[in-house]
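Per-record layout

source: Quercus suber
name: aldehyde dehydrogenase (NAD(+))
length: 427
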Amino acid sequence: MLFPSGKTTTNLSKRMSEVPIKPPVEVKYTQLLIDGKFVDAASGKTFQTLDPRTGEVIANVAEGDAEDINRAVAAARKAFDEGPWPRMTAYERQKVLLRFANLLEQHNDEISALEAWDSGKPYQNALIEVSMVTRLMRYNAGWADKIHGLTVPADGPFHMQTLYEPIGVAGGIIPWNFPLPMYAWKVGPALACGCTVVLKPAEQTPLTALLVSKLLYEAGLPPGVLNVIPGYGPTAGAALASHMDVDKLAFTGSTETGKIVLDLATKSNLKPVTLELGGKSPFIVCEDADVDKAVELAHMALFFNQGECCAAGSRTFVHERIYDEFVQKAKQRAMKRSVGDPFKEGTEQGPQIDNEQFNKILKYIKSGVESGATLESGEKDSATRAITLSPQCSQMLRQLTVNFYKDDMLIAKDEIFGPVQTILKFK
Ligand code: NAD
């Protein structure tokens, strides 16, 4: 069977040998949000957003491209230049954001269910994320009236001061692994400052951005202040990054795309860009560590959110004296991990986001094994199983003893973005 996008499917629902649980939510919003209204894409095109459990279509979503980005930026520009948002008192802006936070709380279950459905993360985790987003919105609301300039001591009879003003139209491009926290981190601060926003959510997870943005308008946001354009990176994303009338861009995603986005911003209007990119973080276990505790912490550091986490502890370095014990215990812990339907109680880990990501992870595992790593646990062909790798190539270990960073195995260098724990020995 093929995914509609043409990718081969792994039919995870069959692997999970359970009928997928029906998510307790309906999809209400699938259009672009421009100038406070839901509208179709100018091209009339749509794309499918898929259930990561099964590859089945959740909804057809309006597919924004350059023309829609133009419409959204024009609405945001008008809202910034002529609308009330940057002109109202900071206290008034704060009240809108606080009302939004209350609405998030009221719709907590609905938003969490939609997020778990679209992203594959356990429903329980999505609930925690929505509470976190609610809190973030209150935090940002609190900042609205506390953004102060400085009075600077001047030499001579001068008065010197700094004044912070909203920059204008802010563009945001976000990834699929934490769709709502990413939304909050981009939209919250920009709105609190009085900017207007055009946001492009990830094509894998467009649904919750549309739902919560509707709530933001219900909370009293004036038209055009926030515009949401679902669509693909090289079309909608690139159009936003290179737009001449976007004053600032905030991007979170892969390092590779970050470089493209920075280039597009540079070659257009030199807009300032904030980049939050990929990672390959070490988790170091010294010889005097409590091994059981270290195993549990290292497990969480890597396997959390299906391993789809920019800050994952994805290089686990363990001292040689406790290495074998650690590997055995880490393996046991990984195999105990409860992997399955995100809507089933007790599930610690859902499916990977899509087949592309799944296949990328399998390629890394294969490359690890080919370059001398030992596959300690996990089913090689299942995206939903926890997988532990321990590289035991003696040549590599010698290199590690001298210098970790000379390690040239791909699995020890690249961000895998999946549930693959590489356990490296050091002395
Ligand atoms: P990605 O770079 O493929 O996509 C991120 C966003 O960029 C998506 O909205 C995508 O549509 C858009 N995009 C893709 N190509 C584009 C282009 N040519 N021009 C403009 N926009 C484009 O990343 P991903 O696979 O969705 O997310 C995973 C990556 O994100 C990982 O590397 C992860 O580490 C990183 N990430 C970083 C953080 C952080 O805070 N540092 C947080 C979460 C994820």
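summary: The chain has two domains: 7-20+279-426, 32-276. The CA atoms of residues 119 and 201 lie 12 Å apart.
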